[in-house]
Sequence to fold (394 residues):
Amino acid sequence: MGRSSQSKAKENRAQIVQTASRMFREAGVENVSVAQIMAANGMTVGGFYKHFESKDALIEEAFSLAFEQSREAWDEVYSRADEASQDRAAILVRQYLRNSSAKNRCPLLAFAPGVAVTESERPGAHEYAEGAKSLLDKFMKEKVGGLCDPAHPTDADNEALVIFAAMVGARLLAQSVGQQSWIQAMEAAVNMAVIKH
Amino acid sequence: MGRSSQSKAKENRAQIVQTASRMFREAGVENVSVAQIMAANGMTVGGFYKHFESKDALIEEAFSLAFEQSREAWDEVYSRADEASQDRAAILVRQYLRNSSAKNRCPLLAFAPGVAVTESERPGAHEYAEGAKSLLDKFMKEKVGGLCDPAHPTDADNEALVIFAAMVGARLLAQSVGQQSWIQAMEAAVNMAVIKH
DNA sequence: TGTACATCAGTGAACGCGCGTTCACTGATGTAC
DNA sequence: TGTACATCAGTGAACGCGCGTTCACTGATGTAC
Fold:
């Protein structure tokens, strides 16, 4: 087991980020060790630092990748939705609320900071904020046809913001409370709201 | 420094739970050690296990206390609000969104599980779920005059659920994204929604 | 009330564990001639 | 093309650290007489 070729090494690096992104979403950043990530790729822990400066650096890349893939998934939902049919944003919301398996967990929730700490202290805080903004932008673009001016939101902007916040909040509460009837009521409620507006 | 009196010991125990509840909300359960909690009460770590079986047991009590104090705070907001004036739930929502200091952080967010794990694995999961349900119950009671049947929600139930979810989701996104203009827009949006309905 | 003893709240050092990180080493890959 | 050497991706043991927990000990409190 000596050196890998440059192309293989590059491939390994990408694999590590992808695996970490998945494992972080499934179990949380704190509950996944560097050694576990390497083992999941059939490697040992020592080699990790040939690719990354630290675990925090990996967290940043893994966060960015997770949000990127979420954006792609949202685009796919949009593209599958019949252009002429009902509100496409409503379809996204429905998908979002349904799709609560561990593997596909939304990074907005999986990486959410339970507590707010100074940005420099929390690894990946910058990437999380950027990713959250990008998903919100994508939602607003579809819902109200473009980014609103945060300083002067229109009524339509505000309605869309509420639905976005409710969508995220509903899934947070649903997965926490873990009572099926409440989850269904939450989903029905958000679905109703998104259709009405 | 020998034994404390029984009443003093009981007082110390209550202080530990109160201090832990505050520190957990400020910095997160994972980022506060047993030794730190004891030091904050002017004690050393060894005595902790005369009061609690484990850190997990303290977490459970601290969670319950935090939710209990949140319920009391909500009651106080309700009682201060003029009975005859506008929607009292709207006042609560406004308070909730404004009150984002670290010390008063809502346990719904501070203790939110970023990832869903089996209930037995995550300390305090039961207390969190119960606390979340109790706050939702209190909100629904004020907003639609009583607990709705989760299996057959009315339209008013659904609207209240959306506002509750949006309130929580908005604060989660606001503290994460940390961009003041977005926070204000989020608050304006939720305020508008709660007043309209 | 006073005395002798048992109790036990609190002490602080030590233990065990998992984690992030380091390091000397290996051997296949890349490169210069 | 072949050969000699340098490079460096990956290995796996070891280190340092913080944490939850344990334990022998202390001495004021509680209790029995």
